[in-house]
């Protein structure tokens, strides 16, 4: 399915007193998609929906609701986010504002961490859960690489470091198309405009890891699918397996 075949519209809702920008598209049961570290959808025009969201809408037979997390393009509320519980309250307010009740949730990377924390604390709001290369779980002996240095927008020197972190083939066509060394400022903001939001949970050591979640993971009661990549520097196979082993119904 091509991106053009998913009709989307951009809109803004108020959740807990904060503006939240969303893309909405597809038909069927609502599905809440929580994006990862690098915002790849909120900065896009509604007539240019990301191919991934189009494919997800088709595969799930769902209406996709893709909000920008606090601090990312179009969404406020970052000053009120101090820890993961604040994000859970924010997502609960958002689900209420959208009148979703219990909803299927797909979370990628940072969004996967937040989706799991939401399911842990508010299982009444999460119908089913899919975690795509989720950050957040502390696994002894594993450290998340220092992403902020690699992701920092730069002109001279290019984006080779970021490509090595994000792509199995950092000099391949997909990586170079996504992160060209001569990237213009608008393209940089599309990729990295939300790093201030990501820093709320990932700046301090252990970066993007919660020891508390590791001890509580078995309390997540909803059916969960964990999707992992074969070569992933941020969420290696050992971490993905720890998610599956720790969850009650994965």
Low-confidence region ranges: none
The H/E string reads EEEHEHEHEEHHHHHEHEH
Physical arrangement of strands within the biggest beta sheet: 1-2-4-3-5-6-9
For the largest beta-sheet, the strand count, sense and barrel status come to: 7 strands, mixed
- Which descriptor suits the 3D outline? globular
For the secondary structure, the number of strands is 9
Strand content: 15-25%
What percent of the residues sit in helical stretches (DSSP H or I)? 25-40%
Task: Give the end-to-end Cα distance, rounded to a whole number of Å.
Answer: 28 Å
Helix count? 10
Class by alpha and beta content: alpha/beta
- Cα-atom radius of gyration: 17 Å
Could you describe the 3D structure shown?
With 250 residues, this protein is of the alpha/beta class. Helix content is 34%, strand content 20%. Strands 1-2-4-3-5-6-9 form a 7-stranded mixed sheet, sandwiched between helices. A two-stranded parallel sheet has the order 7-8. The radius of gyration is 17 Å and the shape is globular.
How would the blueprint of this fold be written?
Blueprint: E1 8-15, E2 18-26, E3 29-34, H1 51-60, E4 62-67, H2 84-97, E5 103-108, H3 110-121, E6 126-132, E7 136-137, H4 147-151, H5 160-166, H6 173-178, H7 185-192, H8 195-202, E8 209-210, H9 211-216, E9 224-227, H10 237-246
Parallel strand pairs: 3-4, 3-5, 5-6, 6-9, 7-8
Antiparallel strand pairs: 1-2, 2-4
Helix pairs in contact: 2-3
């Amino acid at each position: 399915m091509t991106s053009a075949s998913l009709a989307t519209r951009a809109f803004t809702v108020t959740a807990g007193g904060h503006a939240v920008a969303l893309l909405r598209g597809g038909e069927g049961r609502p599905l809440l998609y929580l994006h990862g570290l690098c915002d790849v959808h909120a900065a896009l025009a509604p007539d240019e929906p990301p191919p991934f969201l189009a494919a997800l809408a088709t595969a799930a037979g769902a209406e996709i609701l893709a909000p920008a997390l606090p601090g990312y393009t179009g969404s406020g509320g970052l000053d009120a986010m101090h820890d993961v519980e604040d994000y859970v309250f924010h997502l609960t307010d958002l689900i209420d504002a959208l009148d979703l009740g219990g909803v299927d949730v797909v979370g990628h990377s940072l969004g996967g961490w937040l989706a799991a924390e939401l399911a842990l604390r508010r299982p009444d709001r999460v119908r089913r859960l899919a975690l795509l290369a989720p950050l957040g779980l502390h696994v002894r002996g594993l450290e998340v690489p220092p992403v902020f240095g690699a992701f920092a927008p730069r002109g001279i020197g290019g984006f080779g470091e970021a490509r090595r972190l994000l792509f199995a083939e950092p000099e391949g066509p997909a990586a170079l198309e996504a992160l060209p060394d001569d990237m213009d400022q608008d393209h940089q903001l599309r990729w990295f405009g939300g790093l201030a939001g990501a820093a709320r949970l990932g700046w301090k050591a252990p970066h993007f890891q919660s020891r508390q979640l590791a001890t509580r993971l078995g309390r997540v009661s909803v059916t969960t699918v964990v999707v992992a990549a074969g070569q992933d520097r941020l969420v290696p196979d050992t971490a993905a397996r720890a998610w599956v082993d720790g969850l009650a119904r994965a």
